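Before drawing any conclusions, I looked closely at one protein's amino acid sequence and its C-alpha cells, quoted below without any editing.
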Amino acid sequence: MTAQPPPTPPFRDPHLPFAKRIDDLLSRLALDEKIGFLHQFAPAVERLGVDAFRTGQEALHGVAWMGPATVFPQAVGLGATWNTDLVRRVGEAVSKEVRAMRARDDRIGLNVWSPTVNLLRHPLWGRNEEGYSEDPKLTSAIATAYTHGLRGDHPTYWRTAPVLKHWLAHNNETDRATSSSSVRPRVLHEYDLRAFRETVEAGAVAGVMPAYNLVNGRPNHVSPYLREHLRTWTDEDLLVCSDAGAPSNLVDHEHYYDTHEEATAASLLAGVDSFTDHGTDSSQITGRVKKAYEQGLLTEADIDTAVRRQLSVRFRLGEFDPQYDPHALTRDFDTPAHRALAQEAAEQSVVLLRNDGVLPLAPDTRLAVVGLLADECKLDWYSGTLIHRSTPLEGLYERFGADRIEFAEGVDRVLLKASDGTFLHVPAANADDEVRGAEGALDPALLAGRTDLPPLTTHAVGTELALVDWGEGVLTLSAPDGRYLSVAEDGYVRASADQPGGWVVQETFRLEPHGNGHLLRHVGTGRHVSVGAAGVKVADENAELDDQPEIFTLIVAEHGRDAVARAAAEADVVLVVAGNDPHIDGRETEDRRTLALPAHQDRLLRAARAANPNTVLALVSAYPYAFQPGPLRAALWMSHGGQAAGTALARVLAGDVSPAGRLPQTWYADDADLPDLLDYDVLGGRQTYLYYEGTPLFPFGHGLSYASFTYGELTSRAGDGALHVSFTVMNTGDVTADEVAQLYTRAVDPSVPRPRRELVAHRRVTLAPGEKAELSFEVPLSAFEFWDVAHGRWRLEPGSYDLMAAASSEDVRLRTTVLLDGEPGGPRPVVERGLDGADFDEQSGVAIVDRTKAAGDAVTPANGEVAELFYRACDFGAGVTEVTVSVAGEGTVEISLDGGPALATLAPETPTSGPYDYVTLRTGLTASGVHDVHLRLRGPLRLARAGFSG
C-alpha cells in the first residue's frame, strides 16, 4: 500500500485567515522555540520548515549598512519637500531595493526600522537629520506617505514591514539612556502621540520601536502607553521591537530594575515583542526569559502574545506563501527610475531662504565655488554606500562648464613639526597607488579600516596637511590626495579613510596648547599622538613612561580664507558651500552645542563677502544654523541630499528648477532663543512655531521661489464632521514653479493656552505662468480639539477659529473666521475626580515622574526643593471639609485657593520607605464653589493626587 503524504498543516494553507494560521503554528511550537522567537535573530524551526527571521533593517532614506544602494536625501530633507506623493514614491523605491537586495543576500531584513517620527522641537539635537519636522501634522503626513510606499499597495502581502522610531518624546543624545522627558498630558496628547497616532491609523505601519530615554520617570521599554494608546489605534497586531541594547539598559544604566529577569518580564508585559540585545547572540535574552518564566514573572500566554505579533508580520510579508507573494520577484535596484527619483527628491528639498535677484544665475556667470562642502557628497550613519555621486562642484561643472568656475576648498594647509625638527610625513600608499579606483577616485572599499598601509612617520620634508576645524575644536587632517588621517585598532595613524565615519569616528583630533606647541589628541580613543621608531601612533591605553606624547609646532602654509578671497575676487558671483559633516558635531550619540556656523566656515564666508559682495550661501546640513542673511545676496538650504545632491543644487541655481522646498522646522536667530536641551514641554516653554513668540531667523514653512503666487477666494463650509475649505492659488510669475500652500488654524479666544497657529493641511502644486488652481481641503473637526486636563479627554471648545491660507507660518495671505459649535468646558469636578498631580494647568519647577513602575504619573520638584502647581477653576460644589493627598518620600504639600495664604499643610511624619510607597495624608479644608487651586511642594516629595470630600 502506497504511503500517503502527510496532510498540509493549517498554517501552510493560504486559503485560511492569517489569524487561524498563526493559531495553528503557535500550537505546534514548543515553549523553548517560542522563547527563541523573542530575540532579534529568531532561529529556524527546521522540524516545521520555518525559516530563521531577523527583525530590523535600516531604511531611513535608502537601504543602509548593507552596501551599495540608491541614496536619497536625509529624512529632514524629505520633510522639506512637503510632498507626500514624492515621499511615497521614495518609500516604494526603497522597499523595492530591500526586496532586490534580499534576493541575493538573506542578511537583508524585510522588517524595516523606519521612518523616524520623533518631532524636531530642538534644533541642537544630534538626530535632527533623522526626523521630518517639528510639527506633528506635517510629520505624520510625510511618515504616512513613506510607510505606504514601504508597505506597498497589495491588499494582503506587504513589500516590507515598517516600524516607526522612536517611541516616545525622544531625540536628545545627551544622557539619552538615562534622561527623562517630562511630558505633561496636553503635550503628550496634542504633540508627541499625535505624530505616531495619525501614521498608525493610516494603516501601513507594522510596529514601533521604543526609545532609549525615560518619559515621566519611566523607561519607554516598559511604557504603559504602548497598551493604553498605541494598540488601541489599530486592529492589526503591531510588532514592538526594542532599540539595540535597551533591554539591558533597564538594569545596567537606568537601574530601574534589580535583575535582568525582572526587566525582561516587565518589557514583555508592557508590549515589547522582539528584543534587540547582545547582537546576534540570543542566549542572553532567551536565558532571561526562561528564568523569568521559571520565577513566575511570565506565563506561556504572555510569551504567546509576543510571538503572535511577530508571526503576524511574517505572514503579512508573504514568508509562508512564497508562491502568492507578489513582491517575491522584485528586482528593481539602482534603476534609471530610482536615479531620477533621487534627483527629483533632492531638487524638491532645496529651500531658498533669501534672494535679492541674483538667482537664478545667468548662463554666462563667472562663478567662484568655495567652501568645505563644495566638492563633497556626504553620507550619514543611516546611509547606504554610494553607487553614484554628485557634489555641488561637479554639478556646477556639468551645468555651467569647468572653464567658468574657480574652485577653492578653503582648508588651512599646515605642517606639523615635531620636537626634533622633523615633520609629520604621509608615506605613499604603495608604488602602484592601489588605493585609487579605476577612474582615479579614492576607493572607500579599499580605504576603510586598512591596517596594511604604512603609518605616518616623521621626515625632514613633511607633508602639507589639510586641516579643518568642524567646530568646538574638533579637527580633521587629510593628505594632499584627500585621504583622511585615521587610527586603526593597532593604534597607528595612517592616511587610510576616504571620509570620517563609523560608530566611533576615528578621523577626528584636537590640537591642545602645551607650552610653546600643541599636543595632538585623537578624539576616538581620547589619547595623545606620539612618535616612535615604528611610526606615528596614539599612546597605548596603559602608556609606559617612554610612550610620551609628541609636542608639535603648528606651521600654517596657507590660510583657507586667503584662497577663498583670491577665487572670490575674480568672479561675478561667489557660492559659499557650508554646513556639517554628518559624522562630526551633531549625529546619533552627539548633540550640538550652538546654532552658529563653525568658526572656520564663518571665516571663509566673511572672506568671500569681503572680496565680493555678490556672495550666495548654500548651506548643506542636517540641521538649522544661525547666521546673518542681510549681507548675502541669496541663501539656500538643503539637507545632505544623497547621490544627486550636487546636480540638484546646480539645477536650482541655474533656474532649471524653481526652488519650492519649505522649512520643516523653525530657524532661530540665536542660541538664547532656545529652550534647555532636555525641555520637552513645548507648551510651557513656548517652543516651535506653535508657541514661539519671538522673531525667528526664518519661520516654519518658509521658502522662496523664482515665481510669485497670489491667493484668493477662501471659502469654508461645515458638514459631515469636518470643515470643507478651499482657496485658489495663481502663478503670477514667468516660470513654471511649485507652490506649497499651507492651511493654518487658530482659536481666537481660547480658555486655555493654544497654539499661535497650527498647521492642519498643506498641498504642493505645480503651476505654469498664469495658471490658477483651486485647492480643497477637508479638515476634521477633531483638528480643532485640545486635551482638556480638567476632564481627561479631548474637547472641541465652542467659539471662533481663524482659518489662514498661507505661504508660511508667518506669511498669511488669506484669513477667515468660522464659528464652531462644541462642548463648553465647565470647571473641574474635583469632588468627583480629585486632582491628579500631573493634570495641572500651569507649573513652575515641576518634574513629572512615574507613580508606579507599571503605570501612572506623579509630580515632584525638579530640583528636589520647591515646585508650584496651578489648577484652574476647581468646583468644590456645595462644600468640602477635608483634603487628602497621596504622597511618597519626604517633604510638605501646601494648599491655597485663589492665590491666598496656605489653608492646609500636609507632610508625612517620617519619609516613606521608597518612591513608590505612597501614604494618604488628610487634614481639614473648607471650601465651596469654584476656586483656583495652588499646590506648593517642598522637598523631594512625590504627589500622586489630591482628593476633596465633605
Q: What stands out?
A: Residues 797 and 824 are 6 Å apart (CA to CA).
